[in-house]
Design brief:
This protein is mainly alpha-helical and 113 residues long. Helices cover 42% and strands 4% of the residues.
Length: 113
């Protein structure tokens, strides 16, 4: 990861990730900004885009399942229309006008710090 990441870098990353997976970004600009700011802070601190919605081990290997987009994103979006953070949405979910909300955690408890 680049030495000095910017919010623009994170915005590009999240937009490209959404496009590559056939997802859309959460249209709530304030919410989107807060998640992207969290990704930026984690990337600057850890050197990788660790999900800002989950506790980190501060260890890339232990956190590999929660590096954005986390390994739980695809099944969460398929089942609930959104990822755990609510950053990424399915087209159908976004078109429905529904707001992202809390969904069940798929990450096994033993993987938490």
């Amino acid at each position: 990861m680049k030495e000095k990441l910017t919010l623009k870098d994170v915005q590009t990353f999240t937009a490209n990730t959404a496009a590559a997976n056939g997802w859309v970004l959460n249209p709530d600009e304030e919410f989107l900004d807060s998640i992207q700011q969290g990704l930026l802070a984690n990337a600057q601190r850890l050197g990788y885009y660790q999900c800002p919605c989950r506790d980190s081990w501060d260890d890339r290997e232990k956190d590999r399942d929660i590096i954005c987009p986390c390994e739980y994103s695809k099944p969460d979006i398929e089942e609930y229309g959104q990822c755990f953070c609510g950053l990424f949405l399915s087209d159908e979910f976004e078109e429905s006008g529904s707001e992202a909300s809390s969904i069940p955690e798929r990450r096994p408890q033993e993987l938490y710090p």
